[in-house]
Amino acid sequence: MSARRDPLRFDLAVVGGGAAGVAAALGAAACGAKVALIEAYGFLGGTATVAGVQAYCGFHTRGSRPQQVVAGVGQQALDALQALGHDVTPRPQSSGNWIILLDPERLKRALDGLVLAARVEPLLHCRAVAVQAQGGRIDSLLCADPQGLFEVRAAQWVDATGNANLAALAWPERMRPRRQAATLTARLSGLDTACAYDRDDLRRAALDYEQRTGTPLARANGGYFVPLPWSDACWAMMVDVELADASTQSLTQAEMQARAIAHDYLLSLRRCVPGFAHARLDVTGPALGVRATWHIGSQQDALLDDLLHARRHLDGIARSGWPGELHPRAGVTEYRPIAGDDWFHVRYGALQPDAHGNLWLAGSSIGADDAAFGSVRVMGCAFATGHAAGVAAALSSFACRAPLQAVQQALIEQGALL
Ligand SMILES: Cc1cc2nc3c(=O)[nH]c(=O)nc-3n(C[C@H](O)[C@H](O)[C@H](O)COP(=O)(O)OP(=O)(O)OC[C@H]3O[C@@H](n4cnc5c(N)ncnc54)[C@H](O)[C@@H]3O)c2cc1C
After folding, report:
1. What's the rounded Cα separation, in Å, for the pair 139 and 5?
2. What is the DSSP string of 215-258?
3. Which of 122, 259, 282, 377 keeps 20 to 30 A from 53, CA to CA?
4. Are 35 and 395 within 8 A, CB to CB?
């Protein structure tokens, strides 16, 4: 298969337009690089807009005295949201964690504004489909849009695909499985917000669903519902499904199964939960939320030990302040707390699949063991590791990766918290 159009050339190409990709692109552009930001969907935001995950986690540490641990491009995104009238005040959860609620439509607009102002070239509706690689280096990328195939060439590359998909195109033999349940999010509207409901009501709804359909709801506790205070709606995570891999067949089956459950379960919510009698299913997804199906090792993976002991490292390039949140099976969530509700450092080597290559890992694609992955994957930390990957890529030359100190210095100058 080959491309029929002239190649597009950049200093650096970022694949994936989520928190990590936007941060990488902006960080690199601020260093003077000519940057492409390649995104399969027609908008930026990644899981927040593609899969309707309506909260940024990881901007703050847990507990009664939250500390902000992510700034830099992440802060620029919050400021841009605020400028559009969206309240970005962190909100405490019963778990002790703090989240920043999102409105996906305002987020899309805020991120468009940021990348255009930074003179990044966004390439939307553009899917990376094949890579030409030699050793640890990527030479060019084949992309597909509705008109066909075309080539992108760049000296440096950032994998911000959320699932290390670019690394997988280059080195499929190096990928290791990482199974995490997938979740179809939903937004339910038409709620009577004056009506209080509790866990017992939700458990009753889950039981009602099981009795009507003969199949238990994976989230036996009835799900996680977050009121969206600017509306009569809530953001719901109520449908978990197992996802074997990221093949078309597995994704098709999981998407359709999850949608059927969402529609059926709405009937049980209407019957059993006060305030939900007239609930409507406004939107699912749009796409299934995929946490991970595989990963690639790095020079210095983030580790459970870093998390458990809130370790600081001299080669730290980002802070992670979210506990290790794992979804080993559909319906099951487990937490590994960070010592003292503090934060730990993500190390420079976690961004590098090879010591001397030209691919950088960002966001939930960075090197991490399963427990640390549960922490570093959230979007607050994805902004921070994406920012670091973009700066490091922009400061690297063909011959060698940028020295750590230069990357740390540039990140600090761009407002990042190290
Ligand atoms: C169901 C669910 C709930 C979650 N809840 C939260 C939460 O409440 N708060 C939180 O902070 N985090 C949450 N997370 C984790 C978080 O959303 C992700 O780990 C995070 O978005 C990772 O950011 P990222 O920028 O690395 O990747 P993503 O946000 O996944 O963005 C990757 C982007 O790359 C694009 N892409 C992928 N492959 C290609 C390709 N070949 N070509 C072109 N584009 C491509 C995708 O379309 C996507 O836009 C949740 C995740 C899931 C799945």
Report:
1. 17
2. S--SSTT--EEEEETTTTEEEEEEEEE----SSHHHHHHHHHHH
3. 122
4. no
**Ligand 1 mean position to 200 CA, how many Å?**
32
What is the C-alpha separation between 382 and 48, in angstroms, rounded?
A: 12
Domain ranges for the chain: 8-177+294-413, 182-284
Instruction: Check: CB of residue 345 under 8 Å from CB of residue 306.
Output: yes
pTM exceeding 0.70: yes
CA of 336 to the centre of ligand 1 (A): 21
Residue nearest ligand 1's atom 27 by CA: 162
Q: Are 333 and 221 in contact (CB under 8 A)?
A: no
- Residue-level pLDDT, tens digit, the chain, 418 residues: 566 789 999 999 999 999 999 999 999 999 999 999 999 999 999 999 999 999 999 999 999 999 999 999 999 999 999 999 999 999 999 999 999 999 999 999 999 999 999 999 999 999 999 999 998 899 999 999 999 999 999 999 999 999 999 999 999 999 999 988 899 999 999 999 899 899 999 999 999 999 999 999 999 999 999 999 999 999 999 999 999 899 999 999 999 999 999 999 999 999 999 999 999 999 999 999 999 999 999 999 999 999 999 999 999 999 999 999 998 888 888 999 999 999 999 999 999 999 999 999 999 999 999 999 999 999 999 999 999 999 999 999 877 999 999 999 999 999 999 9
Question: Which atom number of ligand 1 is nearest to the Cα of residue 166?
Answer: 41
Q: How far apart are CA 17 and CA 77, in angstroms?
A: 13
The string of DSSP codes covering 139-163 is EEEEEEETTEEEEEEEEEEEE-SSS
Q: Does the beta carbon of 382 sit less than 6 angstroms from any atom of ligand 1?
A: yes
- Classify the phi-psi angles of 363: left when phi > 0, otherwise alpha if psi is within -120 to 50, otherwise beta: left
**What separation in Å is there between the alpha carbon of 300 and the centre of ligand 1?**
22
CATH topology for 8-177+294-413? FAD/NAD(P)-binding domain (3.50.50)
Consecutive H or E run containing 188: strand 182-189
Q: Quick one: tokens of 52? A: 């309707």
